[in-house]
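Data availability (excerpt). The following record was deposited with the supplementary files.
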Amino acid sequence: MDKIIFSEKLPAQSKNTSLTACRHTAAFLKCILLISILGIVYLTAAPLLAKAGILPFRYEYADNCHRFFTWSDIWYTEFTLPSDKFGQIINPLNGYLILGILKSILILLPFIFVLFFVKRILDRTLNGHSPFIRETEKDLRKISLILIVVALFKNTLYYGLLEKFLFHSLSFRFPDISFEILAMGILSLILSEIFRYGIGLQDEADMTI
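Predicted structure:
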């Protein structure tokens, strides 16, 4: 008798555990989203404050590494170029602002969109909806598209535009692919196909009933 009671309670316990995990994950994603948005604000605001003379600023170039120091010598933003043919930046403050804008648009902004779609999937689950719905499939496809585009073009655009705006020399290197991000994009695409197949089976079952 005890075993039967335990087996009846197990599905409810498992569901509650899953919902609790979803709530914790959603809260964690909110924190990451907030930090990412603050990162974009910092990457663009810090150079503007430095240009206005509000923040201390120092530029350093050594071994093909460009470093922009603000606040202190342990608080800096840096970048390197694939080739060491340009030397120092003529206007470091403008370079600092351009670097912040490019990092915001090409790195942080796609990351924020991916987190937004993942959070939207979790929110639908927390609101009592089944994850096997068309909206989830569409969000997974959007995530895969963003990741694949970023993997294929992010490095090429990032380094190419840095050279264009900072050194007035345009030399795109294609393909310069981020294979880790590409793998995540392909996995997300495969997952969306699994959801599409599962949704089709569920629709057939509903029609049969």
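Summary of structural features: The CA atoms of residues 9 and 103 lie 50 Å apart.
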